[in-house]
Amino acid sequence: MKLALFFGIGFAALAAALKQDPCAGCDESLSLAYQSCAREYGNPCAETNQAGLVASGPGTKKDVGCCLKKDKHDRCMQCKSMDCQFATCHTNKRYYSERTLVMEDKTKTKEAYESHDAKAMKAAGWGL
Q1: What is the mean pLDDT of residues 56-83?
Q2: Euclidean distance between CA atoms 28 and 20, whole angstroms
Q3: Quick one: 106 exposed, middle or buried, by C-beta within 10 A (0-12, 13-18, 19+)?
Q4: Using only C-alpha atoms, what is the Rg of the chain?
């Protein structure tokens, strides 16, 4: 009896110590899954009636798994815009814009600056 109580209290303490991070899992695989669901169902969380038409009243969701992906995508977009000034959260600031940011990062390389600096120096009369 004491052993069961000990494990019960230990399990409760462990469960309280572990908190779920709502911003976990915000990566490219989620964005691809969301896009495929959006392509197939539009809004997968919309409820349809028995005729298969989207209705304003209660009904069945178009696709429950895709609805969960849409909800997670919406949450990741909120996490992306969060201001974590003191490193209190772990967010992927590049979620859903990885490709765009890579192209922007390429303009900020050492080679890009050297090319720009050489042209600017020559225009200012520093070149030979």
Answers
A1: 91
A2: 20
A3: exposed
A4: 25
- Across the range 76-100, mean pLDDT stands at 86
Q: What is the pLDDT of residue 39?
A: 96
The one-letter amino acid at 31: S
Residue 47, phi then psi, degrees to nearest 5? -95, 135
Dihedral sign for Cα atoms in the order 24, 25, 28, 31? negative
> Going along the chain, which residue ranges are E strands?
47-48, 60-61
Q: Which of helix, strand or coil describes residue 47?
A: strand
The continuous run of DSSP H or E covering 96 comes out as none
What is the arithmetic mean of pLDDT over 45-52? 85
Q: What is the pLDDT, as a whole number, of residue 6?
A: 57
